[in-house]
TrEMBL record:
It is found in: Membrane. This is Lipid scramblase CLPTM1L. It holds the Pfam family CLPTM1. One of its GO terms (cellular component) is endomembrane system. Keywords: Membrane, Transmembrane, Transmembrane helix. Its main location: membrane. It is a multi-pass membrane protein. Belongs to the CLPTM1 family. It catalyses: a 6-(alpha-D-glucosaminyl)-1-(1,2-diacyl-sn-glycero-3-phospho)-1D-myo-inositol(in) = a 6-(alpha-D-glucosaminyl)-1-(1,2-diacyl-sn-glycero-3-phospho)-1D-myo-inositol(out); 6-(alpha-D-glucosaminyl)-(1-octadecanoyl,2-(9Z)-octadecenoyl-sn-glycero-3-phospho)-1D-myo-inositol(in) = 6-(alpha-D-glucosaminyl)-(1-octadecanoyl,2-(9Z)-octadecenoyl-sn-glycero-3-phospho)-1D-myo-inositol(out); a 1,2-diacyl-sn-glycero-3-phosphoethanolamine(in) = a 1,2-diacyl-sn-glycero-3-phosphoethanolamine(out); a 1,2-diacyl-sn-glycero-3-phosphocholine(in) = a 1,2-diacyl-sn-glycero-3-phosphocholine(out).
Length: 366
């Protein structure tokens, strides 16, 4: 296979691992496939006693069965299964001219009939993906789902993912209800909701907010806009130096495959930083107005459940460290929201999330 590009320091040219072979390869040789070595061989022997009808023997088991005839009796040898799923691309070692020794670890373990049939089907599925045009890297990612995760834990992950989808639906439903009844933007950070609006279907959301007052601002709305602008001003003093400093630090201390790789990584980290800091102006507005009654708490609650589910996936799924940290940043913001909700108790004269106050409502007739 074609070897992965070597990571180097873009300024000094120092590689992540100095090769013993010091010869310089031409650029055309970088795209040529070279021999790789698999350092691990996993052997599994099926130990369960089973009985199948000879005329309806499963094909997946049949092709692994070996028979020998001793006299007039036919004996079945123990089923030997060579585990190909555990061979990951990241574990392969390049064989070059200076290689004199190669490590080999032979692992032996028993396997049950049910697990054997499951692994056979998984190997066939991965092979089918490659036949359909999937690259070896894509197929390797699929293998990693089953190899690097306990099967029971994986089943739990699918179960939790179903709840994630349910909470997504409920959060979306309550978002619709919230904006449909919302009459003003008092207490709402326009920076945060402009970002949310850009991420959603603009045409749909315009249709769901027909009752907004876009005329003259009230005093409360002017204060909200003032606090929001003030918060973004302070955060910009932190945001831009943080993004630029992070990009420079990574350029000096972290090795990349190319300048393009460093540029993409810097932009991604900047997006994570923007996403985190754009959630903070709402906290500042809440603090200045001493109120959280204007927030869509039902939708926030469902989104918080999804945030905690994302924390679980952050430990299960292989992902960049920056993305893993981004999962936990939402927890911090939500905990501060909960603290503000406790800190600012209910005030009947305070405007709620629908732009209404209890004192403004007419008493019901008896």
């Amino acid at each position: 296979m074609v070897p992965k590009p070597e990571e180097v320091n873009l300024l000094t040219g120092e590689s992540a691992a100095q090769n013993v072979e010091a010869e310089k390869k031409p650029m055309s040789a970088l795209d040529e496939p070279v021999s790789h070595w698999r350092p691990r061989l996993t052997l599994n022997v099926m130990v369960d006693d089973f009985v199948f009808d000879g005329s309806s023997l499963p094909a997946d088991v049949h092709r692994y069965m070996k028979m020998i005839q001793l006299g007039k009796t036919v004996h079945y040898l123990p089923i030997l299964f060579i585990d190909q799923l555990s061979n990951r691309v990241k574990d392969l070692m390049v064989i070059n001219r200076s290689t004199t020794e190669l490590p080999l670890t032979v692992s032996y373990d028993k396997i049950s009939l049910g697990r054997l049939r499951f692994w056979i089907h998984m190997q066939d599925a991965v092979y089918s993906l490659q036949q359909f045009g999937f690259s070896e890297k894509d197929a390797d990612e699929v293998k990693g789902i089953f190899v690097d995760t306990n099967l029971y834990f994986l089943a739990l992950t699918f179960f939790v993912a179903a709840f994630h989808l349910l909470f997504d639906f409920l959060a979306f439903k309550n978002d619709i209800s919230f904006w449909k009844k919302k009459k003003s933007m008092i207490g709402m950070s326009t920076k945060l909701w402009k970002v949310k609006k850009a991420l959603k279907m603009t045409v749909v959301w315009r249709g769901l907010r027909p009752t907004f007052q876009f005329g003259a601002y009230s005093e409360s709305e002017r204060k909200t806009e003032e606090y929001d602008t003030q918060a973004m001003k302070y955060l910009s003093y932190l945001l831009y130096p943080l993004c630029i400093g992070g990009a420079v630090y990574s350029l000096l201390n972290i090795k990349y495959k190319s300048w393009y790789s460093w540029l993409i990584n810097s932009f991604v980290n900047g997006v994570y930083a923007f996403g985190f800091l754009f959630m903070l102006p709402q906290l500042f507005v809440n603090y200045k107005m001493k109120s959280v009654a204007h927030l869509p708490w039902k939708a926030f609650t469902y989104k918080a459940f999804n945030t905690f589910i994302d924390d679980v996936f952050a430990f299960i799924i292989t992902m960049p460290t920056s993305h893993r940290l981004a999962c936990f940043r939402d927890d911090v913001v939500f905990l501060i929201y909960l603290y503000q909700r406790w800190l600012y108790p209910v005030d009947r004269s305070r405007v709620n999330e629908y732009g209404e106050s209890y004192e403004e409502q007419k008493p019901h007739s008896q």
